[in-house]
Amino acid sequence: MIEVKQRQTAKFLKEKILELLQSYGVSITQLLAVTCDNGANMVAAVKQLQKQYVADHPSLEAYDDDSDDDDEARERLIEDLMEELQKSVSLIRCAVHTMQLAVTDIVKATDVTIKEITTIAKNTRKIGYKAMFEYNKISVPPFYSRTRWNGVYKMLNYFKQHEEFYKDIGRQYPELDLTNHWNYIDEYVSAFEPVFVCTNKMQAKHVSLSDFYVHWLNTVMQVGLLTNSNLAKSLVLSLTERLKPLKNNMAFKAALLVDPRFNYLNSKTLSPEDKEQTRSFMLATWERIKQLDPNSSKEHQDTAQQSKPTNSFDTFLTRLFGGLPPESDQNTKPLIQQLNALDLEDHQSFSFDVWSHWKNRLKTYPELSKLALVFLSVPSNQVNVERSFSGMALTLTERRTNLSEESLENILLIKLNVDLIDKIIPENGFQ
Protein backbone atom coordinates (compact mmCIF):
# COMPACT_ATOMS: atom_id res chain seq x y z
CA MET A 1 0.00 0.00 0.00
CA ILE A 2 1.58 3.28 -1.11
CA GLU A 3 0.53 6.92 -1.17
CA VAL A 4 0.36 8.56 -4.58
CA LYS A 5 -0.04 12.27 -5.15
CA GLN A 6 0.44 12.44 -8.91
CA ARG A 7 -2.27 11.99 -11.52
CA GLN A 8 -3.15 8.29 -11.57
CA THR A 9 -2.66 7.32 -15.19
CA ALA A 10 -2.28 3.68 -16.16
CA LYS A 11 1.38 4.15 -17.04
CA PHE A 12 2.10 5.86 -13.72
CA LEU A 13 0.34 3.11 -11.75
CA LYS A 14 2.22 0.45 -13.67
CA GLU A 15 5.54 2.08 -12.78
CA LYS A 16 4.53 2.31 -9.11
CA ILE A 17 3.51 -1.35 -9.08
CA LEU A 18 6.84 -2.38 -10.55
CA GLU A 19 8.72 -0.21 -8.05
CA LEU A 20 6.83 -1.80 -5.18
CA LEU A 21 7.56 -5.29 -6.48
CA GLN A 22 11.22 -4.43 -6.84
CA SER A 23 11.37 -3.31 -3.20
CA TYR A 24 10.41 -6.88 -2.24
CA GLY A 25 12.81 -8.44 -4.73
CA VAL A 26 10.04 -9.59 -7.08
CA SER A 27 10.45 -9.16 -10.83
CA ILE A 28 7.70 -8.90 -13.43
CA THR A 29 8.72 -12.33 -14.77
CA GLN A 30 7.60 -13.89 -11.49
CA LEU A 31 4.05 -12.56 -11.85
CA LEU A 32 1.41 -14.80 -13.33
CA ALA A 33 -1.75 -12.82 -12.58
CA VAL A 34 -3.04 -9.66 -10.93
CA THR A 35 -6.54 -9.49 -9.46
CA CYS A 36 -8.14 -6.05 -9.48
CA ASP A 37 -11.43 -4.17 -9.47
CA ASN A 38 -12.35 -0.56 -10.30
CA GLY A 39 -11.03 0.77 -7.01
CA ALA A 40 -14.30 2.25 -5.73
CA ASN A 41 -13.76 0.65 -2.32
CA MET A 42 -10.26 2.10 -2.06
CA VAL A 43 -11.48 5.58 -2.97
CA ALA A 44 -14.19 5.38 -0.33
CA ALA A 45 -11.70 4.17 2.29
CA VAL A 46 -9.50 7.19 1.68
CA LYS A 47 -12.56 9.42 1.99
CA GLN A 48 -13.27 7.85 5.35
CA LEU A 49 -9.76 8.62 6.56
CA GLN A 50 -10.19 12.20 5.42
CA LYS A 51 -13.50 12.40 7.28
CA GLN A 52 -15.41 13.34 4.16
CA TYR A 53 -17.74 10.48 4.83
CA VAL A 54 -19.20 9.74 8.28
CA ALA A 55 -19.86 6.00 8.45
CA ASP A 56 -21.96 6.10 11.62
CA HIS A 57 -24.54 8.53 10.22
CA PRO A 58 -24.59 8.20 6.41
CA SER A 59 -27.11 10.23 4.46
CA LEU A 60 -28.64 9.43 1.12
CA GLU A 61 -26.80 12.38 -0.36
CA ALA A 62 -23.48 11.04 0.91
CA TYR A 63 -24.36 7.67 -0.60
CA ASP A 64 -24.72 9.25 -4.01
CA ASP A 65 -21.52 11.32 -3.87
CA ASP A 66 -19.76 9.24 -6.53
CA SER A 67 -21.34 10.00 -9.86
CA ASP A 68 -21.59 7.65 -12.81
CA ASP A 69 -18.95 9.74 -14.54
CA ASP A 70 -16.52 8.99 -11.70
CA ASP A 71 -17.28 5.28 -11.98
CA GLU A 72 -16.71 5.39 -15.72
CA ALA A 73 -13.42 7.25 -15.25
CA ARG A 74 -12.17 4.64 -12.77
CA GLU A 75 -13.29 1.89 -15.12
CA ARG A 76 -11.33 3.43 -18.01
CA LEU A 77 -8.29 3.78 -15.77
CA ILE A 78 -8.35 0.09 -14.85
CA GLU A 79 -8.87 -0.88 -18.50
CA ASP A 80 -5.81 1.20 -19.47
CA LEU A 81 -3.79 -0.36 -16.67
CA MET A 82 -4.82 -3.83 -17.80
CA GLU A 83 -3.64 -2.98 -21.30
CA GLU A 84 -0.29 -1.80 -19.92
CA LEU A 85 0.27 -5.02 -17.98
CA GLN A 86 -1.44 -7.51 -20.30
CA LYS A 87 1.78 -8.36 -22.12
CA SER A 88 3.33 -9.77 -18.96
CA VAL A 89 0.54 -10.98 -16.67
CA SER A 90 -3.06 -12.13 -16.70
CA LEU A 91 -5.51 -9.54 -15.37
CA ILE A 92 -8.41 -10.95 -13.37
CA ARG A 93 -11.45 -8.99 -12.27
CA CYS A 94 -12.42 -9.39 -8.61
CA ALA A 95 -15.24 -11.94 -8.49
CA VAL A 96 -16.83 -10.43 -5.37
CA HIS A 97 -16.90 -6.98 -6.92
CA THR A 98 -18.30 -8.40 -10.16
CA MET A 99 -21.09 -10.13 -8.25
CA GLN A 100 -21.98 -6.84 -6.61
CA LEU A 101 -22.15 -5.24 -10.06
CA ALA A 102 -24.63 -7.94 -11.03
CA VAL A 103 -26.73 -6.94 -8.02
CA THR A 104 -26.46 -3.25 -8.91
CA ASP A 105 -27.64 -4.06 -12.44
CA ILE A 106 -30.97 -5.15 -10.96
CA VAL A 107 -31.58 -2.88 -8.00
CA LYS A 108 -29.79 0.44 -7.93
CA ALA A 109 -28.90 1.81 -4.52
CA THR A 110 -30.95 4.89 -5.39
CA ASP A 111 -34.06 2.81 -6.12
CA VAL A 112 -37.17 4.69 -4.95
CA THR A 113 -38.44 1.83 -2.78
CA ILE A 114 -35.08 1.32 -1.08
CA LYS A 115 -34.85 5.05 -0.43
CA GLU A 116 -38.25 5.04 1.23
CA ILE A 117 -37.33 2.06 3.42
CA THR A 118 -34.00 3.67 4.28
CA THR A 119 -35.84 6.80 5.40
CA ILE A 120 -37.93 4.67 7.75
CA ALA A 121 -34.73 3.02 9.04
CA LYS A 122 -33.33 6.48 9.79
CA ASN A 123 -36.54 7.49 11.56
CA THR A 124 -36.13 4.63 14.05
CA ARG A 125 -33.03 6.37 15.41
CA LYS A 126 -34.96 9.42 16.56
CA ILE A 127 -34.64 9.97 20.29
CA GLY A 128 -38.40 9.61 20.79
CA TYR A 129 -38.29 5.92 19.85
CA LYS A 130 -35.21 4.97 21.88
CA ALA A 131 -37.13 3.83 24.99
CA MET A 132 -39.51 1.71 22.89
CA PHE A 133 -36.67 -0.20 21.22
CA GLU A 134 -34.86 -0.68 24.53
CA TYR A 135 -38.02 -1.95 26.24
CA ASN A 136 -38.61 -4.52 23.47
CA LYS A 137 -34.88 -5.38 23.40
CA ILE A 138 -34.73 -4.84 19.65
CA SER A 139 -31.85 -3.08 17.95
CA VAL A 140 -32.39 -0.37 15.37
CA PRO A 141 -31.91 -1.37 11.71
CA PRO A 142 -28.35 -1.28 10.35
CA PHE A 143 -27.34 1.45 7.93
CA TYR A 144 -25.66 0.60 4.65
CA SER A 145 -23.03 2.38 2.60
CA ARG A 146 -21.70 2.13 -0.92
CA THR A 147 -18.50 0.41 0.17
CA ARG A 148 -20.22 -2.28 2.25
CA TRP A 149 -21.16 -5.39 0.34
CA ASN A 150 -24.70 -6.62 0.91
CA GLY A 151 -25.59 -3.56 3.01
CA VAL A 152 -29.08 -3.15 1.53
CA TYR A 153 -29.75 -6.87 1.98
CA LYS A 154 -28.79 -6.72 5.67
CA MET A 155 -31.12 -3.79 6.26
CA LEU A 156 -34.09 -5.40 4.51
CA ASN A 157 -33.41 -8.78 6.13
CA TYR A 158 -33.46 -7.05 9.52
CA PHE A 159 -36.96 -5.73 8.80
CA LYS A 160 -38.11 -9.18 7.67
CA GLN A 161 -36.84 -10.75 10.88
CA HIS A 162 -38.75 -8.18 12.94
CA GLU A 163 -41.82 -8.01 10.72
CA GLU A 164 -44.42 -8.49 13.48
CA PHE A 165 -42.83 -5.82 15.67
CA TYR A 166 -42.81 -3.26 12.85
CA LYS A 167 -46.38 -4.09 11.86
CA ASP A 168 -47.45 -3.28 15.42
CA ILE A 169 -45.55 0.00 15.74
CA GLY A 170 -46.42 0.96 12.17
CA ARG A 171 -50.06 1.28 13.19
CA GLN A 172 -49.06 3.71 15.96
CA TYR A 173 -46.35 5.69 14.19
CA PRO A 174 -46.97 6.44 10.48
CA GLU A 175 -43.33 7.40 9.84
CA LEU A 176 -42.35 3.81 10.79
CA ASP A 177 -45.08 2.15 8.72
CA LEU A 178 -43.80 -0.44 6.21
CA THR A 179 -47.22 -1.65 5.04
CA ASN A 180 -46.57 -0.72 1.41
CA HIS A 181 -43.14 -2.36 1.39
CA TRP A 182 -43.50 -5.82 2.94
CA ASN A 183 -43.98 -7.60 -0.40
CA TYR A 184 -40.89 -5.90 -1.80
CA ILE A 185 -38.86 -6.74 1.31
CA ASP A 186 -39.86 -10.42 1.13
CA GLU A 187 -39.06 -10.68 -2.57
CA TYR A 188 -35.73 -8.86 -2.22
CA VAL A 189 -34.51 -10.95 0.72
CA SER A 190 -35.50 -14.23 -0.94
CA ALA A 191 -33.84 -13.32 -4.24
CA PHE A 192 -30.63 -11.90 -2.83
CA GLU A 193 -30.04 -14.26 0.08
CA PRO A 194 -28.03 -16.69 -2.14
CA VAL A 195 -25.88 -13.75 -3.28
CA PHE A 196 -25.32 -12.75 0.35
CA VAL A 197 -24.23 -16.29 1.26
CA CYS A 198 -22.00 -16.54 -1.81
CA THR A 199 -20.32 -13.20 -1.16
CA ASN A 200 -19.49 -14.25 2.39
CA LYS A 201 -17.99 -17.53 1.15
CA MET A 202 -15.87 -15.69 -1.39
CA GLN A 203 -14.45 -13.44 1.32
CA ALA A 204 -12.44 -16.33 2.77
CA LYS A 205 -8.68 -15.85 2.96
CA HIS A 206 -8.16 -17.61 -0.38
CA VAL A 207 -10.77 -18.65 -2.92
CA SER A 208 -9.35 -20.18 -6.08
CA LEU A 209 -10.79 -19.40 -9.49
CA SER A 210 -12.47 -22.80 -9.76
CA ASP A 211 -13.89 -22.57 -6.21
CA PHE A 212 -15.36 -19.16 -7.02
CA TYR A 213 -16.96 -20.73 -10.11
CA VAL A 214 -18.57 -23.39 -7.90
CA HIS A 215 -19.96 -20.72 -5.55
CA TRP A 216 -21.18 -18.56 -8.44
CA LEU A 217 -22.97 -21.39 -10.26
CA ASN A 218 -24.58 -22.55 -7.02
CA THR A 219 -25.88 -19.00 -6.52
CA VAL A 220 -27.35 -18.95 -10.03
CA MET A 221 -29.08 -22.27 -9.32
CA GLN A 222 -30.48 -21.14 -5.95
CA VAL A 223 -31.80 -17.85 -7.34
CA GLY A 224 -33.22 -19.63 -10.38
CA LEU A 225 -35.43 -21.78 -8.15
CA LEU A 226 -37.52 -18.69 -7.37
CA THR A 227 -39.55 -18.97 -10.55
CA ASN A 228 -42.31 -16.61 -9.38
CA SER A 229 -39.99 -13.70 -8.60
CA ASN A 230 -39.29 -11.09 -11.26
CA LEU A 231 -36.31 -9.87 -9.24
CA ALA A 232 -34.88 -13.39 -9.20
CA LYS A 233 -35.35 -13.85 -12.95
CA SER A 234 -33.56 -10.59 -13.69
CA LEU A 235 -30.80 -11.45 -11.22
CA VAL A 236 -30.13 -14.80 -12.91
CA LEU A 237 -29.73 -13.05 -16.25
CA SER A 238 -27.41 -10.45 -14.74
CA LEU A 239 -25.26 -13.05 -12.94
CA THR A 240 -24.97 -15.08 -16.13
CA GLU A 241 -24.01 -12.05 -18.20
CA ARG A 242 -21.49 -10.71 -15.67
CA LEU A 243 -19.80 -14.11 -15.53
CA LYS A 244 -18.87 -14.14 -19.22
CA PRO A 245 -15.86 -11.74 -19.06
CA LEU A 246 -14.45 -13.62 -16.06
CA LYS A 247 -14.58 -16.91 -17.98
CA ASN A 248 -12.53 -15.51 -20.86
CA ASN A 249 -9.35 -15.32 -18.76
CA MET A 250 -6.65 -17.92 -19.51
CA ALA A 251 -5.73 -18.37 -15.84
CA PHE A 252 -9.40 -19.10 -15.12
CA LYS A 253 -9.54 -21.69 -17.89
CA ALA A 254 -6.33 -23.29 -16.62
CA ALA A 255 -7.82 -23.57 -13.12
CA LEU A 256 -10.86 -25.35 -14.59
CA LEU A 257 -8.68 -27.65 -16.69
CA VAL A 258 -6.90 -29.04 -13.61
CA ASP A 259 -10.11 -29.29 -11.57
CA PRO A 260 -11.86 -32.68 -11.95
CA ARG A 261 -15.12 -31.07 -10.81
CA PHE A 262 -15.20 -29.32 -14.19
CA ASN A 263 -12.79 -31.20 -16.46
CA TYR A 264 -13.54 -34.91 -16.70
CA LEU A 265 -14.48 -37.55 -19.27
CA ASN A 266 -17.03 -36.10 -21.74
CA SER A 267 -17.14 -32.75 -19.92
CA LYS A 268 -18.22 -29.74 -21.98
CA THR A 269 -17.03 -27.08 -19.53
CA LEU A 270 -14.34 -26.04 -22.00
CA SER A 271 -14.60 -26.37 -25.77
CA PRO A 272 -11.89 -28.31 -27.66
CA GLU A 273 -10.51 -24.99 -28.92
CA ASP A 274 -10.42 -23.58 -25.38
CA LYS A 275 -8.63 -26.67 -24.12
CA GLU A 276 -6.01 -26.44 -26.86
CA GLN A 277 -5.33 -22.76 -26.13
CA THR A 278 -5.29 -23.39 -22.39
CA ARG A 279 -2.80 -26.24 -22.67
CA SER A 280 -0.51 -24.05 -24.77
CA PHE A 281 -0.78 -21.30 -22.17
CA MET A 282 0.01 -23.75 -19.37
CA LEU A 283 3.02 -25.14 -21.22
CA ALA A 284 4.32 -21.61 -21.75
CA THR A 285 3.80 -20.93 -18.04
CA TRP A 286 5.77 -24.07 -17.19
CA GLU A 287 8.64 -22.85 -19.34
CA ARG A 288 8.63 -19.61 -17.33
CA ILE A 289 8.70 -21.63 -14.11
CA LYS A 290 11.66 -23.67 -15.33
CA GLN A 291 13.58 -20.52 -16.19
CA LEU A 292 12.96 -19.17 -12.69
CA ASP A 293 13.70 -22.51 -11.01
CA PRO A 294 15.93 -24.76 -13.15
CA ASN A 295 15.95 -27.38 -10.38
CA SER A 296 12.26 -28.13 -10.96
CA SER A 297 13.01 -29.51 -14.42
CA LYS A 298 16.15 -31.34 -13.29
CA GLU A 299 14.26 -33.11 -10.49
CA HIS A 300 11.71 -34.40 -12.98
CA GLN A 301 14.41 -35.60 -15.38
CA ASP A 302 16.12 -37.50 -12.58
CA THR A 303 12.81 -39.11 -11.57
CA ALA A 304 12.06 -40.05 -15.16
CA GLN A 305 15.47 -41.65 -15.62
CA GLN A 306 15.01 -43.69 -12.45
CA SER A 307 11.58 -44.84 -13.65
CA LYS A 308 12.66 -46.09 -17.10
CA PRO A 309 11.50 -49.67 -17.76
CA THR A 310 14.20 -52.32 -17.54
CA ASN A 311 12.09 -55.42 -18.14
CA SER A 312 13.75 -57.40 -20.93
CA PHE A 313 10.49 -59.10 -21.94
CA ASP A 314 8.87 -55.69 -22.54
CA THR A 315 11.80 -54.84 -24.78
CA PHE A 316 11.43 -58.17 -26.62
CA LEU A 317 7.70 -57.60 -27.25
CA THR A 318 8.36 -54.08 -28.49
CA ARG A 319 10.91 -55.35 -31.00
CA LEU A 320 8.53 -58.11 -32.06
CA PHE A 321 5.40 -56.00 -32.55
CA GLY A 322 6.83 -52.49 -32.99
CA GLY A 323 5.98 -49.21 -31.30
CA LEU A 324 7.59 -47.64 -28.24
CA PRO A 325 8.51 -49.40 -24.99
CA PRO A 326 5.83 -49.16 -22.28
CA GLU A 327 6.40 -46.59 -19.58
CA SER A 328 6.41 -47.77 -15.98
CA ASP A 329 4.43 -44.78 -14.73
CA GLN A 330 2.35 -41.89 -15.98
CA ASN A 331 4.72 -39.40 -14.38
CA THR A 332 7.38 -40.18 -17.02
CA LYS A 333 5.15 -38.99 -19.85
CA PRO A 334 5.74 -35.54 -21.36
CA LEU A 335 3.79 -32.75 -19.71
CA ILE A 336 1.57 -32.23 -22.76
CA GLN A 337 0.42 -35.86 -22.56
CA GLN A 338 -0.34 -35.46 -18.87
CA LEU A 339 -2.38 -32.34 -19.64
CA ASN A 340 -4.31 -34.24 -22.32
CA ALA A 341 -4.95 -37.08 -19.87
CA LEU A 342 -6.81 -34.69 -17.56
CA ASP A 343 -9.78 -35.04 -19.93
CA LEU A 344 -10.11 -38.66 -18.76
CA GLU A 345 -10.35 -37.92 -15.03
CA ASP A 346 -13.33 -39.12 -12.99
CA HIS A 347 -16.03 -36.54 -12.29
CA GLN A 348 -15.74 -35.32 -8.69
CA SER A 349 -18.34 -33.78 -6.37
CA PHE A 350 -18.48 -30.00 -5.91
CA SER A 351 -17.16 -30.49 -2.33
CA PHE A 352 -14.01 -32.20 -3.63
CA ASP A 353 -10.75 -30.75 -2.23
CA VAL A 354 -8.83 -29.94 -5.40
CA TRP A 355 -5.87 -28.40 -3.56
CA SER A 356 -5.24 -31.56 -1.51
CA HIS A 357 -5.76 -33.64 -4.65
CA TRP A 358 -2.77 -32.01 -6.35
CA LYS A 359 -0.67 -31.80 -3.18
CA ASN A 360 -0.98 -35.57 -2.89
CA ARG A 361 0.19 -35.99 -6.49
CA LEU A 362 3.40 -34.00 -6.12
CA LYS A 363 5.58 -37.11 -5.97
CA THR A 364 3.90 -39.03 -8.78
CA TYR A 365 3.22 -36.08 -11.09
CA PRO A 366 5.77 -33.43 -10.03
CA GLU A 367 5.56 -31.15 -13.06
CA LEU A 368 1.80 -31.30 -13.53
CA SER A 369 1.12 -30.91 -9.81
CA LYS A 370 3.35 -27.87 -9.45
CA LEU A 371 1.71 -26.29 -12.47
CA ALA A 372 -1.79 -27.07 -11.20
CA LEU A 373 -1.03 -25.62 -7.76
CA VAL A 374 0.23 -22.42 -9.37
CA PHE A 375 -3.10 -21.83 -11.12
CA LEU A 376 -5.07 -22.86 -8.04
CA SER A 377 -3.12 -20.21 -6.12
CA VAL A 378 -4.43 -17.37 -8.30
CA PRO A 379 -6.90 -15.37 -6.14
CA SER A 380 -10.40 -14.85 -7.48
CA ASN A 381 -11.03 -11.68 -5.48
CA GLN A 382 -9.39 -8.62 -3.97
CA VAL A 383 -10.96 -8.76 -0.53
CA ASN A 384 -7.51 -8.48 1.04
CA VAL A 385 -7.35 -4.88 -0.21
CA GLU A 386 -10.47 -4.07 1.80
CA ARG A 387 -8.84 -5.64 4.85
CA SER A 388 -5.68 -3.65 4.22
CA PHE A 389 -7.53 -0.33 4.21
CA SER A 390 -9.46 -1.36 7.30
CA GLY A 391 -6.13 -2.07 8.98
CA MET A 392 -4.82 1.32 7.91
CA ALA A 393 -7.94 3.08 9.24
CA LEU A 394 -7.41 1.45 12.64
CA THR A 395 -3.71 2.33 12.65
CA LEU A 396 -3.75 5.85 11.24
CA THR A 397 -6.06 7.33 13.88
CA GLU A 398 -6.52 10.99 14.83
CA ARG A 399 -3.71 10.83 17.37
CA ARG A 400 -1.31 8.92 15.15
CA THR A 401 -1.35 10.97 11.97
CA ASN A 402 2.34 11.86 12.35
CA LEU A 403 3.55 8.33 11.69
CA SER A 404 6.28 8.21 9.09
CA GLU A 405 5.67 6.33 5.86
CA GLU A 406 8.18 3.65 6.90
CA SER A 407 6.64 3.18 10.36
CA LEU A 408 3.13 2.92 8.92
CA GLU A 409 4.28 0.37 6.35
CA ASN A 410 6.03 -1.74 8.99
CA ILE A 411 3.00 -1.70 11.31
CA LEU A 412 0.65 -2.74 8.51
CA LEU A 413 3.08 -5.43 7.34
CA ILE A 414 2.87 -7.06 10.76
CA LYS A 415 -0.86 -6.47 11.32
CA LEU A 416 -1.85 -7.93 7.96
CA ASN A 417 0.43 -10.97 8.15
CA VAL A 418 0.04 -12.16 11.74
CA ASP A 419 -0.37 -15.78 10.64
CA LEU A 420 3.10 -15.70 9.05
CA ILE A 421 4.96 -14.44 12.12
CA ASP A 422 5.47 -17.90 13.63
CA LYS A 423 6.82 -19.21 10.34
CA ILE A 424 9.26 -16.33 9.90
CA ILE A 425 10.43 -15.97 13.50
CA PRO A 426 11.28 -19.20 15.39
CA GLU A 427 9.64 -19.87 18.75
CA ASN A 428 11.26 -17.77 21.49
CA GLY A 429 13.02 -15.85 18.73
CA PHE A 430 12.83 -12.61 20.71
CA GLN A 431 14.57 -14.06 23.76
Automatic annotation (TrEMBL):
<dbReference type="InterPro" id="IPR008906">
    <property type="entry name" value="HATC_C_dom"/>
</dbReference>
<keyword id="KW-0863">Zinc-finger</keyword>
<feature type="domain" description="HAT C-terminal dimerisation">
    <location>
        <begin position="345"/>
        <end position="417"/>
    </location>
</feature>
<keyword id="KW-0539">Nucleus</keyword>
<protein>
    <recommendedName>
        <fullName>HAT C-terminal dimerisation domain-containing protein</fullName>
    </recommendedName>
</protein>
<dbReference type="InterPro" id="IPR052035">
    <property type="entry name" value="ZnF_BED_domain_contain"/>
</dbReference>
<keyword id="KW-0479">Metal-binding</keyword>
<dbReference type="GO" id="GO:0046983">
    <property type="term" value="F:protein dimerization activity"/>
</dbReference>
<dbReference type="Pfam" id="PF05699">
    <property type="entry name" value="Dimer_Tnp_hAT"/>
</dbReference>
<dbReference type="GO" id="GO:0005634">
    <property type="term" value="C:nucleus"/>
</dbReference>
<dbReference type="InterPro" id="IPR012337">
    <property type="entry name" value="RNaseH-like_sf"/>
</dbReference>
<keyword id="KW-0862">Zinc</keyword>
<dbReference type="GO" id="GO:0008270">
    <property type="term" value="F:zinc ion binding"/>
</dbReference>
